[in-house]
Write a structure and sequence with these properties.
3 copies of one chain form a homotrimer.
Chain A: E1 2-8, H1 13-22, E2 28-36, E3 56-65, H2 67-81, E4 89-95, E5 98-101
Chain lengths: ~110, ~110, ~110
Amino acid sequence: MKKIEAYIQTFMLNKVEDALRAIHLHGMSVMDIRGFGREKDESYPHHTADYTVNFTPKTKIEIICSAADCDKIVEALRKAAHTGRKGDGKIFVYEVSKAVSILNGKQGEEAI
Amino acid sequence: MKKIEAYIQTFMLNKVEDALRAIHLHGMSVMDIRGFGREKDESYPHHTADYTVNFTPKTKIEIICSAADCDKIVEALRKAAHTGRKGDGKIFVYEVSKAVSILNGKQGEEAI
Amino acid sequence: MKKIEAYIQTFMLNKVEDALRAIHLHGMSVMDIRGFGREKDESYPHHTADYTVNFTPKTKIEIICSAADCDKIVEALRKAAHTGRKGDGKIFVYEVSKAVSILNGKQGEEAI
């Protein structure tokens, strides 16, 4: 099993959610975060000494899925979150060691 | 070392915290998130074209523990977070590669 | 590639951000959380039956980096977040299986 974490533009969340529901995604979690990325480094290194704190609001999505579904979900997410401008964000994948349903105690892919 | 991540009903947090303190858990982190899961798919596929955005508030818990303690913590968490209704949530376990205490620089299990 | 997750004192975030920008960190994500740790267990076990709920605000930082940069970032983060008092927090490192840029679809270290 895999965990997908995506950091996206907040205003793209509805489009991403639509795209993921369209491929019958069973569930996802969303949280508001803030971040900085390369888009903030454009004027670097002129600001090494006196840059301002410039985090921007971002949205983080977390999805746990089977290994078989991972690439499909990542690609749907990437296409839906894409605007073509800096700050579009990143998607990362991690290994899941164990999954347990709180409702029925089922483990592994039966838990999701 | 292991990382436990649980997505639970927000109103179950106090009960979960009690259960984890009862087994002497050394620490945990909590954050407010929102999510959707299978409980929102009950009327699917009638809503493929015009479903509404229906994230519900959830709470995420993060715990880092020794591999030896992991199963005990997962089970205590699962029992405490269980209501028997859809939406109870899930628990996932991940591998931790490295742990460092900011206070004293100790690493591995000495860090937690 | 590695993921670094740090749980730090909220009031140390600006200093940590400065330290990480000083080593040219390309990006990071920040979120407000709450937690309890060993600093809350000082009077334990006198409070087994009637402890109060005492989460304190903390800040979580997430950074994805190349394996080659990981130790340098962890050390810069640790030094900058250190006050010498309980509650300073922890840093954990995880393996990243896959990274994708939403902007250009590049994968691996080219994505970050």
